[in-house]
What we know:
Blueprint: E1 5-8, H1 18-35, H2 37-42, H3 45-58, H4 66-80, H5 88-99, H6 108-116, E2 121-125, H7 131-134, E3 142-145, H8 146-149, H9 156-166, E4 173-177, H10 180-189, E5 193-197, E6 214-216, H11 219-229
Parallel strand pairs: 1-2, 1-4, 2-3, 4-5, 5-6
The site of magnesium ion (MG) has 7 residues, from loops.
Amino acid sequence: xxxxxxxxxxxxxxxxxxxxxxxxxxxxxxxxxxxxxxxxxxxxxxxxxxxxxxxxxxxxxxxxxxxxxxxxxxxxxxxxxxxxxxxxxxxxxxxxxxxxxxxxxxxxxxxxxxxxxxxxxxxxxxxxxxxxxxxxxxxxxxxxxxxxxxxxxxxxxxxxxxxxxxxxxxxxxxxxxxxxxxxxxxxxxxxxxxxxxxxxxxxxxxxxxxxxxxxxxxxxxxxxxxxxxxx
Length: 231
Ligand SMILES: [Mg+2]
């Protein structure tokens, strides 16, 4: 298999996302308690999460845009407390700063350094991670996200958009990610090669069809495999 470039998922592939999302919820809640106690009382963390899920279910037109979903959630929470002018930008900054305070898996950075010295990488995410804030922008030739593309993984169009940015045929690109459906099935349907970052060592879910081209435990194993293939 000749690989000329990679597209790489971010959340749960390079870092665990849940701790950052939980911290973001806690930081927002702390801000609300201090500055808008009525809103904090009406919308404790579980209620705020439920409201966000409600917004996501209602606004399927914004399925690719978690940022817009969060703005609407905040606006709605404040409106129910009689506040029409929610400090949306401040709230967003608190959330976004915590959301990007991620701790990379120990294998991620060394592997990225090995891989980027031989293959161009485009990040490919449905989320709103910010590579500059996380401090890893220099490892990526391109950044492709659902919000800018207008569609989310597993839609083949987002993979096609990434291939176009890389200037390569889908079949020359290896997509790497942790999610069997969003990453492996999505990329396979778009004609890319697929690598499943399977940190928990699960068996491939057979119901999803053909197994990925590569099933690896972490990013170091991916770098080992790529180097063994040669450029
Ligand atoms: Mg992921």
